[in-house]
Structure prediction request, 333 residues.
Amino acid sequence: MKKILIIILFLSGLQIIVAQPKSSEMSSKPGAFSRMGFGARGMGMGNPMSAVTEGNLVSYYNPALSAFQEGNMFQTSYSFLSLDRSLNFINFTRKFEFFSSRDTSSDRKPKATAGVSLGIINAGVSKIDGRDNDGAKTGDLSTSENQFFIGLANRFSEKFAVGIAAKIYYYKLYEEINSSGFGFDLGLLYKFNDQWNFSLLVCDLNTQYEWNTSPIYDIEGSTSTDNFPVLTKVGVRYRNQEAGIIAAAEFENSNAETHILRAGVEYNIIEQLFLRGGVDNFNLKNNDYEMNPSLGFSYFYPLNSILVGIDYAFVLEPYSPFDRHIVGISVKF
Prediction:
């Protein structure tokens, strides 16, 4: 009972510590949609997932994670956002084990372990009021921004894994104005022991949008390049298996001069039911930060050899008419 009370107080406290930001530096940079998190589990925990090796894993948080996935995992999430915005996720992660042909024992251990993670993030804004030079309404406009990624990981030992993820971006802004970009992430993960994991990764290397407005403005058009901020992240995970608790924290530094801290906890309160809480976007650089406290849960139900889960996350969003609600489905098989 005492343990449950501590978790409740912690999750309640996350909702109380809410700052009133002046601005968000990273939200004005290219690719902002891809830095909001991935799915209901990660967002409900505050997104400090780069060192978490339990549950449904996705290379979005660290390409080295897929080598630790148990079974095959499929997940998808849909977000309810204000201001006619959309944010959707889909991912599949699988681990591969390779055995030595010389080892024929029944309890043999894999010679090597690899993993693959494929996913899509789709974001956009609809019902944008389009008008001509005279102010007459011409119709509704919309934008669509997407990230397609594939992450590959290799587990060199029981303790150490390395991963790389390739990411393709496609942004349809207006009529014939669109852009694409390519980048990649590099990630490391080290399992110190059963309780502690540590991670290090660099995200969005060599990623940029190149724009050309000539299709609309002809000779008056111009070209420009928007570079994505390069992120460096250091993460830690603590696990108390007997208590059913996973706690994680992550520090993020970028070449946009931001220093972000995020942290969260997951509690397996009863069998197949998980409660979560966290805080994202705590900028240590100055007081002009945007903090996003969050809460969430997952419930899994076994269907023969398949485990089906329902995921939900609530994320507080400053300056928005209402907050984020993310719902998802996870399938382990």
The chain has a mean pLDDT of 88. Residues 195 and 240 are 6 Å apart (CA to CA). The radius of gyration is 21 Å. The helical segments are 2-16, 39-44, 214-217.
